[in-house]
Amino acid sequence: MRAIAMIFFLALGLGWSQQHQGHGHGGHGGAPSQGPLTPIQLRLIEGWIRQVPSSLRDTTVYLTVQNPLGRDLRLVGASSPVAEMVMLMEDYRETRSGQTIQGMREVKSFLLPKNGQLVLRPGGKHLMLMGLKRPLKEGERLPIRLIFEGKQEAALELKVERR
Ligand SMILES: [Cu+2]
Questions:
Q1: How far is the CA of 105 from the centre of ligand 1 (A)?
Q2: 82 CA → ligand 1 middle, Å
Q3: What is the pLDDT of residues 62-91, one digit of tens each?
Q4: What domain of life does the UniProt record list for this protein's source (predicted)?
Q5: If you measure from the C-alpha of residue 70 to the centroid of ligand 1, how many angstroms do you get, rounded to a whole number?
Q6: Can you point out the beta strands (E) in the chain?
Q7: What pLDDT was estimated at residue 131?
Q8: For 6-17, how does the pLDDT look when each residue is reduced to its tens digit (9 = 90+)?
């Protein structure tokens, strides 16, 4: 049963790679925690949201944040008022029987090590804004809330850019 599930997931990944920015729905990235969260301060080194044509309802978020705390943080979710949900994902590329497979898959969490950085960038880890509620305008700044294990959250504001 596990093998079947893995093959199914791989097929999903392939579907994603073909559309690249147009992920299908059906993920299960739901809200990781309810109730009040403790705010934490991270240092935003850089970050941006990719502008996509208004016909697309999903887009990617890339950022680099620094953890100034003396303890590890684990990113387990995110949210934004402009998206129905946000998924943690990573691009991957692997070779199977001489064929290169490229796609993206959902990830449960990202580690933000103590006194270290988490880097989300094209070709690697990223956040996916799923189900955009309206088209995004180039240059506008949007709030993104990062949710960490242990009911902690960090609020960021990122610019929509065409890159
Ligand atoms: Cu993605």
A1: 7
A2: 17
A3: 999 999 999 999 999 999 999 999 999 999
A4: Bacteria
A5: 30
A6: 38-39, 43-50, 59-66, 73-79, 83-96, 99-106, 110-112, 117-120, 125-132, 141-148, 152-161
A7: 98
A8: 444 444 444 444
